[in-house]
Specification:
The chain has 342 residues and is an alpha+beta fold. The chain has 7 helices and 19 strands.
């Protein structure tokens, strides 16, 4: 597999390679050139890469050329090694305080703030880093997107955005983060449980606003493990013959798990205060076909290849009960998800 990807990378052509959660099959879509393909209505088929920012067109790599590989499952030990940089801590803490102040003064209930870690390491081992992610995170959506016109990104995200198949829609409300402790169950505070409920309620309301006759099946709240972290998760399901991928995307993106509640106020706060472009971070990605079928994931636990290493993107959901130091520590733990693969 690595030899095939290396050949594509050296030819400077576009490709996307990915593995679905709990699968041993790695799929590859690739081109013979660096042409940038755009979809406006998801009527094509291929691998989608969508940004956080609102847009009317999306980059994709067509599925006209593809391959697949089988990988052997491996178990890795999740220790505490990883990134321990304290750079820009004060800036992030100040942003948490600013967000909490906005929560107190407005109707804003939750906002997700983020930061970028410039991790300087030799980046010649791009493909080896991707293979390490595959080995580390068997239950995540692991991907590598390379396009000469948009750059190289990779990650291991735990959050499904949209699974659409024959009129059946499945999505996930994911929020709350805590460290895995050997032999112990996840412990959740009121802040994390409240945050998770906000995400679940908002997704449900957005779907009903899109199609009022929908009957929404909301699953039970559960803890789910993603590498060395626990998250709170609620599965959401609905069915309707008129479900179209484009309408669902417009209704749900960005979800409150990456934006906030209400959506308009949270996005306004993010654009005004983060002071950087998220690009593909907290966007969505994955295979899609003919506006009727898709398996898309939120682009979390990800990094962008740079000339000197990687830009690692991490964030945290802020509510009125947030503790700034705890939110900082959460972003450090999330950064470790990617940095363990370096």
């Amino acid at each position: 597999m690595l030899d095939h990807l290396k050949a594509l990378h050296e030819k400077k052509v576009a490709f996307a390679v990915y593995k679905l959660p709990n699968s041993n099959e790695v799929k590859l879509f690739y081109q013979k050139n660096d042409e940038l393909h755009l979809t406006f209505d998801f009527s094509e088929a291929g691998f989608l890469m969508a940004p956080f920012a609102e847009t009317d067109f999306y980059s994709f790599i067509p599925n006209t050329r593809q391959d697949s590989f089988t990988i052997a499952p491996e178990e890795f030990n999740f220790d505490n090694k990883g990134i321990h940089k304290e750079e820009n801590k004060e800036l992030f803490i100040d942003l948490v305080h600013k967000a909490k102040q906005k929560l107190d003064q407005t109707e804003l209930q939750k906002v997700v703030i983020s930061r970028v870690i410039n991790h300087k390491v030799p980046n010649e081992n791009l493909l080896q880093t991707f293979q390490n992610l595959l080995k580390l995170y068997s239950n995540a959506f692991v991907y590598l997107w390379h396009h000469p016109q948009t750059g190289s990104w990779m990650g291991a995200t735990p959050e499904r955005f949209i699974n659409l198949n024959k009129g059946v829609l499945k999505t996930t409300a994911l929020a709350g983060t805590t460290q895995v402790e050997d032999g112990k169950k996840a412990k959740w505070t009121d802040k994390e449980i409240e945050e998770q409920q906000l995400v679940t309620d908002d997704i449900k309301a957005s779907l009903i606003q899109m199609l009022p006759e929908l009957k929404i099946d909301v699953g039970t709240l559960k803890s789910t493990r993603a590498g060395a972290l626990w998250h709170l998760k609620t599965d959401i399901k609905t069915k309707h013959p008129n479900l179209k991928l484009l309408n669902i995307v417009k209704a749900l993106h960005p979800t409150p798990a990456v934006g906030g509640v209400p959506k308009d106020l949270s996005i306004k706060f993010i654009h005004k205060n983060e002071e950087y472009d998220r690009k593909f971070y907290t966007g969505f990605l994955g295979p899609f076909e003919a506006n009727k079928q898709a398996d898309l994931f939120v682009n979390l636990r990800c990094a962008e290849l740079t000339l000197t290493g990687y830009n690692v993107y991490v964030g945290a959901g802020i509510t009125s009960k947030s503790n700034p130091e705890s939110e900082w520590n959460e972003t450090q733990r999330k950064a470790n998800t990617f940095c363990k693969a370096l």
